[in-house]
Amino acid sequence: MGEKKFITGDEAVAYAVKLARVKVVSAYPITPQTPIVERIAKFIADGELEADYIRVESEHSAMAGCLGACMAGVRSFTASASHGLAYMHEMLSYVAGGRFPIVLAVANRSIGPPWSIWGEQQDSIQQRDTGFIQLYVESAQEAFDTVLQAFKIAENPEVFTPVMVCLDGFHVSHTEELVEIPDQAEIDRFLPPFTPNALLNPDEPMSLTMGASDRLYTKWRYEQFQAIQAAAKVIEAVDKEYGKLFVRSYGGLVDAYRCKGADVIVVTMGGLATGAAKEAADALRKAGIKAGVLKVRAFRPFPAEAVRKHLASAKQVIVIDRDCSYGYEGALCSEVKAALCGLQPCPQVTNFIGGIGGADITPVDVQVLVKKVIKTAPHKPGGIVFQYQEEK
Amino acid sequence: MSPPRKVSKTVPGPHWKAGETGVNIGEWFSQEPVFTEKCTYCLLCWLYCPDGAIRREDSKKLLTVEPFCKNCGICVEVCPVKAVVMVPKAEKKGKS
Fold first, then answer.
1. List of chain B residues whose C-beta atoms are within 8 Å of the C-beta of residue A230
2. Which terminal CB of chain A, N or C, has fewer other CB atoms within 10 Å?
3. Do residues A24 and A52 lie in contact, with contact meaning Cβ atoms separated by under 8 Å?
4. Which residues are paired to A349 by β-bridges?
5. Which of B5, B12, B22 sits opposite A216 (nearest CB)?
6. Beta carbons within 8 Å of A87's beta carbon, 6+ residues apart
C-alpha cells in the first residue's frame, strides 16, 4: 500500500511522472524546475522508468518535442519556469490550439530584470491566455497528486487540453515534506493508458494543426473555448475520484478554508500565500476576527461561480497576488472582482501585491494586512497594497 | 513497423484526414489546367505539382485536377510535350 518519502516538491512531481508511465520527456533545465527533470533522467537511466528523454537545446524545442511525441501517440511531459517558460510561449499556444493533452510542470519563478531566480507567479500568469489549464498547488503532496490528476484531466475526451501544474519556486519546489506515494498498480487503476486523439500513422494519414479560413478557424476556437469550460467539471470529478481512491482531494477548483460566516476572506494561489493566510486565519479567529481563506486551485478555467459563492457574504476580500499586470493590478484580483461584479451588497476588494522576487509572506504579514483593511474600511474601491516600504 | 494504434473516436482540434479540404479553395482561382491528347502520361506534372492537386486515375491514361489547385502553372512548364494548358474556367464551362 504505497510508501512515504521525505522529498521536495520537484521530486514529488518526478515521482508522479514516473507513476503516470510517461513515454517521452523532452526538457531543458532551468532553476527552480531542474530537480524535476534531473530526477526523471535518473529514473530513466536506472531503468525505473521506460521512456525516452530528449535533451533539447531550448524550452521552445522542449515543448515541440512533447508535441511530436503526442502526435505520435504517447504520453509526454516537460517542465519549465521563468524565462524558459517565456521562451516556450509560442509552443504553449501551439499545443493548446492543436488540442494536445500534454502536462507541463512550472516551478514558479520571477521574470527579470531585475534578475532573480526566486519565486513569484509572474511567469505562469503571463501564459494565462495560451489556452492551457492552470492548476496551482500548495504542497509537495498536492504537486504529486495534481500531476497525476492533470494527465487524467488533459486526456479526457471532452477536454483534450494541455495542463500546467504550477508549484511555488523554492517554497514548494525545494522544500522537503513527507509525501505519500501509492503503488504503481493503484495508480494504474486511476490513470489508464493514453488514447491519442490524433496521430501520425502511415496507414491513416492526417493533416495535423491545419491552416483554416475565418469560419473554420472560429469553429475550432469555439470548440477549444467549450473544452476548457467543460474542464471545470472534469477537474472537480477527477479530484473527487482521486480522493475516493487515495483519501486526498483538494476541493476541485477552489479550496475554502474557514470561509463559512467569515467577514474577511483572503484569496490566494499556490503554497506560500495560502499557508501564511491559513495560519493567519486561525490566529485571527482566536482573536475574535472572523477570517477565512479561499485558495484558487484552478486559475484557468477560472471558477467564477465558486469564487462568487464563497465570497458573497464576506464584507472584506483581500486578494494576494504574487504577480502584477503592470498598469492595472494583480491578475488574480481582476478575476475575483469580475466574479463578484453585480453582487448586492458587494464585498470591498483590496489587492495585496507581494511575495515577489522570493519575498516572504508570513502569517503575521497577513494578520497585519487583515487588521489594517478592517480598520480603514470602507476604503476606496480598487485599493492596492504593495509589499514595500521605503527605506528611511 | 509497429501495428497502427487505436485512435479515439472523437478527433478534436484542427486535424483532418489527409487530402480533405475544409473549403473548396479551387473556387478562388480562375483557371484550371487541362490535359490534352498530346499527354504521354509521363507523370512529370504529377511529380512536380506542389499541392498534390493532380490525380492519377486508374485508367492509366487520364489526369484530373483536385479542387486545391492554386493555378501556379508548374505543370504547364514541366510538360515535355506541351500537353498541359491553362484554361479560364468560364471558357472551359462554355465549351462543355
1. none
2. C
3. yes
4. A317
5. B22
6. A58, A59, A60
What backbone torsions phi and psi does residue B19 show, to the nearest 5 degrees?
90, -10
Q: Provide the residue type at A220 as one letter.
A: W
A117 in contact with chain B, both atoms CB, cutoff 8 A: no
Between chains, do B16 and A207 touch, taking CB under 8 Å as contact? Answer: yes
Domains A3-246 and A256-386 are alike in CATH topology: yes
Round to whole Å and give the CA distance between A148 and A238: 10
Nearest CA-CA partner of A274 in A282, A261, A334: A282
Q: Closest approach of chain A CAs to the CA of B78, in angstroms?
A: 28
Domain locations in chain A as residue ranges: 3-246, 256-386
The answer to whether A197 contacts B4, with C-beta atoms less than 8 Å apart, is no
| In the predicted structure, residue A1 carries a pLDDT above the cut 70 | no
User: Cα distance from B2 to chain A (closest Cα, Å)?
Assistant: 10
Task: Look up the CATH number of domain A256-386.
Answer: 3.40.50.920
* Whether A198 and B15 lie within 8 Å, measured CB to CB: yes
Domain B25-88 has what CATH class? alpha beta
Judge whether A216 is closer than 8 Å to chain B, CB to CB: yes
Pick from A98, A204, A215: CB nearest B13: A98
Given the C-alpha cell 503503488, which residue does it identify?
A183
Answer yes or no: is pLDDT of A380 > 60: no
Q: What is the pLDDT of residue B12?
A: 83
CA A23, CA A20: separation in Å to the nearest integer? Answer: 9
How many whole angstroms separate alpha carbon A289 and alpha carbon A136? 28
Digit-coded pLDDT (tens) for A53-97: 999 999 999 999 999 999 988 999 999 999 999 999 999 999 999
Q: How far is A306 from A80, CA to CA, in rounded Å? A: 30
Query: A369: how many CB neighbours lie within 10 A of its CB?
Result: 22
Picking from A195, A157, A162, A184, the residue whose alpha carbon sits closest to that of residue A49 is A184
